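Annotated sample (chain length 122).
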Amino acid sequence: MRDAVHDAQDHLAPRVPPRDAVVAAWVALEDAAALAGARRAPAQTPTEFTVAVLGRTPADPGAVATLRGLYQRARFGRGDVTASDVETARDALDRLATDLSTDRPVRTAAGTARDGAEESGA
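Output written by the structure step:
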C-alpha cells in the first residue's frame, strides 16, 4: 500500500481538475487494495474493501476517512471540488505515506497489534 499512496499522490498534480484528481487518487488506493492479496467479501464495495485493507496497516484512520469522504463527495456529490480539497487530500496522503513508512505494528481484524512490516509495505 505504501507504493499505492505514492501513486495516489501523483494524481493530485495541479494540472488535473480537482474532482478528477481526488477520484483518481482514491481509485489508485482501491486498485492497490485489490492487488494486496486480501480477499474481498462479496458484499463489500471497493471503497469498503480499501478501508478494511488500510485498517490492517499503520495508516491513520482519520486520514483514511478524510480521503474516503473527499472521494465520495467528488464522485457522487454535486458540489464543487476545489483546490483546497485537493490540498486536504494531499495532506491526508502525506500522513498515510509517513504512517506506512514506519515499522509500527499493524492492527489485525481482531483489533490486536502485531509486527507487520511486510503488510505495511504492500
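Annotation: The longest strand covers residues 106-107.
Annotation: Residues 18-35 form the longest helix (18 residues).
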